[in-house]
Amino acid sequence: MIYHKLIDKLHKETILSPQEYLLLIKNRDKCSEYLFQNATQVREEIYGNVIYIRGLIEFTNYCKNDCLYCGIRRSNILAERYRLTKEEIVSCAEEGYQLGFRTFVLQGGEDQYYSDGILTDIIRGIKTKYPDCAITLSLGERSFESYLALKNAGADRYLLRHETATKSHYEKLHPKEMNFDNRMQCLENLKKIGYQVGAGFMVGSPYQTEENLADELIFLKKLQPHMVGIGPFVPHKDTPFKDQLPGTVDLTLFMLGLIRLTLPNVLLPATTALGTIDPLGREKGIRAGANVLMPNLSPVTVRKKYMLYDNKICTGDEAAQCIDCLKRRVSTTGCEVITDRGDYKEI
Question: What are the CA-CA distances from residue 251 to residues 197, 304, 323 (Å)?
């Protein structure tokens, strides 16, 4: 079958043409299982059957941006805003460390309250206490100098989802003051500075075409990120896209498989958004080639306030409950959760 031959080619060469990627995406129902078999084989050859966990600390839901899809956009007056103090953030890391986490992801909206001085103090506070841990930041667009200061303070990784690699599509998802070229420059700056860099995009976002998705894979191959975070678009009731259709499980899983074969060594999460639209979404993500999960370590009192999209799962679980549940669920895939920083493995 032609689709199986294309997957074999991708497995061997780790790149296809845009037209070849598009042919697979359009005919995913004919070859998804074969793709997933190849993707999990590649993952196991490089990382074994282990799943890395990252402790997610969502420390602010203030944001200066007004992205049309996001529940914490600045013009959403119904969002209940909060900020965590340094002491609260370090306390989340302390709890996570006791539970076995060795990577902490500090994520928030683009909140100008958190200056470089405040953030470097927080990073040093965690690194001093837990020098064997990695810190991933997900704070949006900042200057080269800011990224450098945060790296010098001890940050190891930076996740900046580009959301789409197509400029015309980007402009349909964001207000005019946001600039596609600046987002791309930020990714390049992060790589120059020496972060382990993560990119990512929504699957099934408004106005997205299958051609756009094929172009995502070409872009990722060129960028060579260490991490790729993708998940289905899930609408939020208080945004301009509230009535748009969500992304689908099958297309998201197929894109995970294609990413695994295109970037064999990549750290690839099965995201919360995938688990939100399908109760078994994260397990299916692992079976499609993912090898990272990001349980929530934020205080339970604020989890429902960090609502990027509707019906987000795990907003009420205590961290210990969440990790125990994930370990049981991961075991059903034939994989196991391990205590490890889970760094990117070079070829």
Answer: 24, 27, 27
